[in-house]
Amino acid sequence: MFTGIVEELGEVTAVETLDDACRFRLRGPVVTQGAKHGDSIAVNGVCLTVVDHEGDEFTADVMAETLNRSSLGALQAGSRVNLERPMAVGERLGGHIVQGHVDGTGAILERKPSDNWEIVKISLPADLTRYVVEKGSITVDGISLTVVDAGPDYFTVSLIPTTLDLTTLGHTQPGDPVNLEVDVIAKYVERMLGDRAQGAAK
């Protein structure tokens, strides 16, 4: 489990295309400290498994399903990525519960800079709109954010200078894809209420 608090802005150093997958080599001096084979590291909000680790770099395999359902397929050598290790038991939950399971992708629609923050508008797939509410939590490229406005096919977030400086959202431009993970609690509530309604109808 992750919290959506990005530990560092890493970099893709190599991409190897396989028959039905890709192998990424990524640089991240912070997240590779103590890393070992089999560990999990979130890359732009996608939970990946460490296959190999050497120095400040690690390798992860990404299967076709993940490439098709996330924006990882657009990564290339030199791409910057948000990196986060799983939360250790007993630590503070700084963001919200993040699984590293991408629900869909959106695209940056608009950026409105201000003196102290920036409003970013992001497209929202139709099947995810019911999970996104004003002042609720959403994960964008692995970053735990608060929804400012929830529209019919978009949402907006307000980014402080720290988020702009330390994550990929400080560099994305209109048209760029982003990974989205909605609040898992909303999905569980929907399922439980649906099961209750079906039981009452019998």
Average pLDDT, rounded to a whole number, is 92
Question: Biggest sheet: strands side by side, in what order?
Answer: 1-2-5-4-3-6
| CATH fold category name of the largest domain | Elongation Factor Tu (Ef-tu), domain 3
Strand content: 35-45%
Topology order in helix (H) and strand (E) letters = EEEEEHEEEEEEHEH
Distance between the termini: 37 Å
**Whole-number total of structural domains:** 2
How would you sum up the global shape? globular
Task: Please give the radius of gyration in angstroms.
Answer: 17 Å
Ranges where pLDDT stays below 50 over 5 or more residues in a row are none
Q: In CATH, what is the class of the largest domain?
A: Mainly Beta
Compact summary:
With 202 residues, the chain is mainly beta.
Descriptive tags:
15% helix; globular; mainly beta; 3 helices; Elongation Factor Tu (Ef-tu), domain 3; 202 residues
Characterise the protein shown here.
By secondary structure, this protein is mostly beta strands. It has 2 domains: 8-84, Elongation Factor Tu (Ef-tu), domain 3 (Beta Barrel); 104-189, Elongation Factor Tu (Ef-tu), domain 3 (Beta Barrel), CATH 2.40.30. It has 3 helices and 12 strands; from the N terminus they run βββββαββββββαβα. The chain has a 6-stranded antiparallel beta barrel with strand order 1-2-5-4-3-6. A 6-stranded antiparallel beta barrel has the order 7-8-11-10-9-12. Strand 1 and strand 2 form a beta hairpin. The protein is globular.
